[in-house]
Design a protein that fits this description.
mainly alpha, MetI-like fold, about 80% helix
Length: about 600
């Protein structure tokens, strides 16, 4: 009987099951998440519109290639400065960049301590620290160089201060982010033992974030070397100034020669930075500016060595002769006497080498230290020239239109760079690339792209395409591939391997694993990298306008050269407001999509 009745009940049971499923509470979508998603869509649409308005046309560029051929035919063979002068200018440029980066690294420590949520003494000080990071990033280093040239005249000091102050923004921000990601256990232990705030920082925080700090400072040094080119256009000595003189005097042969030297120098600096990171940290660098994962890797390596030492001390294992019991006095002396092993010798050698490089950089810059005392008397008179902000002879519509063009260039360049970077960066990731050769080739390509300063590339593109947004957009997009591609590759390499292994075990193809496990896990990082690239491109688009790349930079250069410093202030405030908006959007997106 039961066998006959059961089938008649199945449709009713299925209907009941559907009814229960329909009545079950469904997880509603957060209005904030919906708003964030719509904002992302709006930004993408605006980027597409900006790209369409940029006037980029591959057929037109091919037709315009004749301009480049005529230009290079007119240039003739590339020439270089005299060997002695070239060596001096190269050393001076490296010295300026190193001194400026180290100045920023030192100042960034207290700024990051105030800006980090887990170390700041109070909300007001945290807001101040965050504001300093945004303000120093928003003011272009070119503007800072203009101000310091007025205060100190020509020389190395304006370049050092401009590079240093502008770099505080990036270094302190990433350093603060690393502090917020530390393991609070060691810090709490020091506090429970009665340690001071200084001891908490030096013993509980600094050892964890030191790898991140090293990686960030070295990465910023690479950026500063590429950016030093444009500082020569406003009076900062070095290779950049010589290149600007050469182009302004139509000596294109010498200008391109110096540009080639800068390209080679950037490549060498990139390689040296990677070697230094590897030697100082004892691990292969990931290349991420925010090096918290380096700290985790160092911690895992240390834990592994500790586990090995624990294994050798277990009962039943052979005890090394050196671990035999010794008198108490001998053990104490041995513990206090650190042996000169290979690691200590290597670290000491690197330390002395770094000190020698720093001393050499200071000496080659020939800093006039007395100017740091006497310039204060000039500050009031110079400050009056910059305030109040005013558009001068330009109307508001023109200036806001130029700022809009700068934002459009940044949006279009970010979109182009991300499209290419996702492809190149994926193939540069160890868990995505089909083989080691492909990964190495893509990594090498990213290094070469990062080695070309955007200003030099913009100058070459202007020759081909003419003045305007097209050259600036292409130059920024090309440079963004090197930055975003590297970040994307590192992020994809560090996703959790479990989902990828599970899909492979079911027989999924490489493309299916990539689409279903790698990309979904890396989406949050991809959003963060996109906003970071947009933030970088807005500032870079301003600089490219100085050499004819379109946007507000053209008016910024004219105002600076014409001593219309109130116009400079107005432009800087517009840039600051734009960067603040992008920074706020990035923080909101990271919070919503975490």
């Amino acid at each position: 009987m039961s066998t006959l009745v059961a089938p008649s009940r199945r449709p009713a049971e299925a209907s009941d099951a559907r009814s229960v499923a329909e009545r079950a509470p469904k997880r509603g979508r957060s209005p904030e998440r919906i708003a964030a998603s719509l904002t992302l869509v709006a930004i993408v649409v605006a980027s597409i519109i900006a790209l369409a308005d940029s006037g980029i046309s591959i057929p037109h560029m091919i037709e315009s290639w004749g301009n480049a051929e005529r230009f290079f035919a007119r240039v003739g063979p590339i020439s270089f400065p005299e060997p002695a002068q070239l060596l001096y200018l190269t050393a001076l440029t490296i010295g300026l960049v190193l001194c400026g980066t180290l100045l920023a690294a030192v100042i960034s420590v207290p700024v990051a301590y105030l800006a980090a949520s887990n170390t700041t003494p109070g909300g007001g000080l945290q807001a101040f620290g965050r504001f300093v990071t945004v303000l120093t990033r928003a003011i272009p280093d070119v503007v800072l160089a203009m101000v310091f040239v007025l205060m100190f005249s020509l020389g190395s000091l304006p370049g050092i201060l401009a590079i240093g102050i502008h770099s505080i923004g990036m270094i302190s921000k990433l350093f603060a982010d690393a502090i917020e990601q530390i393991d609070e256990g060691p810090r709490r232990a020091i506090r429970a033992a009665g340690g001071s705030t200084w001891q908490e920082f030096t013993s509980g925080i600094l050892p964890q974030v030191l790898p991140s700090w090293v990686a960030t400072v070295l990465h910023r040094n690479d950026i500063n070397l590429r950016g030093s080119v444009v500082l020569g256009y406003v009076g900062v000595v070095g290779l950049g100034m010589e290149m600007s003189f050469a182009f302004k005097s139509l000596n294109y042969s010498l200008g391109l020669g110096i540009a080639l030297v800068m390209f080679a120098l950037c490549i060498v600096m990139e390689i040296v930075s990677s070697i230094v990171r590897s030697a100082m940290l004892g691990v292969a660098p990931t290349g991420r500016s925010l090096g918290a994962r380096l700290a985790r890797r160092v911690g895992r390596a240390s834990a592994g060595r500790g586990a090995q030492r624990l294994e050798t001390s277990r009962p039943g294992l052979e005890t090394p002769p050196s671990s035999a019991p010794r008198p108490a006095g001998t053990s104490l002396e041995a513990a206090l006497r650190r042996p000169w092993d290979a690691v200590r010798i290597r670290n000491t050698a690197w330390g002395w080498a770094a000190l020698a490089v720093v001393v050499g950089s200071v000496l080659i810059c020939d800093i006039q230290w007395g100017d740091l005392i006497t310039f204060w008397a000039k500050v009031p008179a110079i400050a009056v020239q910059f305030w109040p902000p005013d558009f001068g002879n330009y109307d508001a519509a023109t200036m806001f239109g130029a700022m809009g063009q700068t934002i459009g260039i940044a949006l279009a360049a970010t979109l182009l760079a991300l499209v290419v970077s996702v492809f190149v960066g994926s193939l540069a990731a160890r868990n995505v690339a089909p083989n080691g050769t492909t990964r190495t080739s893509m990594r090498l390509l990213l290094v070469v792209i990062r080695g070309i300063p955007e200003v030099i590339l913009a100058i070459v593109l202007i020759v081909i395409t003419g003045l305007g947004a097209q050259a600036g957009t292409l130059a920024l997009a090309f440079g963004g591939i090197g930055l975003a591609g590297k970040l994307i590759a590192d992020s994809f390499e560090e996703v959790k391997a479990g989902p990828e292994r599970a899909l492979r075990a079911t027989g999924a193809s490489r493309a299916q694993v990539y689409a279903s496990a790698t990309v979904p896990q890396g989406t949050r990082a991809l959003i963060g990298h996109s906003f970071y690239l947009l933030d970088t491109n807005i500032r870079a688009a301003t600089i490219l306008g100085i050499v004819g790349g379109g946007g507000i930079g053209y008016y910024l250069l004219n105002a600076g050269q014409g001593s219309n410093y109130q116009v400079v202030t107005a432009i800087v405030l517009m840039i600051l407001a734009t960067v603040l908006v992008v920074e706020s959007l990035a923080m909101w997106m990271r919070r919503v999509f975490r």
